[in-house]
Please model this.
Amino acid sequence: MTKNIKLDNDTTIGNKDFNIMAGPCAVESEEQMDRIGKFLSSIGIKILRGGAFKPRTNPNTFQGLEYDGLKILKAIKEKYGLLVVSEIMDPRDVELGCEYIDIIQIGSRNMQNFALLKEVGSVKKPVLLKRGMSATIEEWLMAAEYIRLEGNEDIILCERGIRTFSDYTRNTLDLVSVPIIKNLSEYPIIIDPSHGTGRRELIIPATKAALAIGADGIIVEVHPEPSKALSDGDQSLDFDGFKVLVDEIEKLKVHFY
Ligand code: PEP
Ligand code: MN
Model:
């Protein structure tokens, strides 16, 4: 049985609905986030994503707005009545970061940062634990165990693709991890079709497969102008593309729920 994780009075994850978390890879400006917040709330999406601390491969690229980004997220969340998920990378930012966000994201690169896992285990905020890009299922569940042992059981797992020899996609989205996780644990599991593929045109097919295989939702990158995004534009939908995705989910949902 999948555990229900309550986010607010009318939003839970793991409750047989298909949750959609959407927003840009990175928080770039208040104006950008305002456009996204307004758009998402206008079509009934409740959970906004956006990175303030960005774990970039190249240290010479945009690293995120950090606390200024968290402040923007909080302002947009309050303005449009949204919930916010954002990555925290450093144990020293966990306590303060919790004042701005509703779900703490642990990124793929930090899945085995045990100090960080223990720190998020000791706060009362749901944690979105992304799968390490070369982590086995066992290692992933043991990372969740580090969080749980500190007292925080509100853990949502996120399959975001793993490294394989295949180079057409950025990662190989391991969709069967969904039924495997459902067999081995009670944690809800969502899919990240953006990082899982690296390609905008694969987001809809990957999402449909995620829904059919029993995932509890998705986290997807959406940007008002993907070609101008400071990170991950190629795997971000624009607003029209996102509306098509939501329609496709609604159409398919009736067959599974
Ligand atoms: C992200 O979701 O912003 C991100 C960096 O993803 P991942 O940790 O899966 O690479
Ligand atoms: Mn990204």
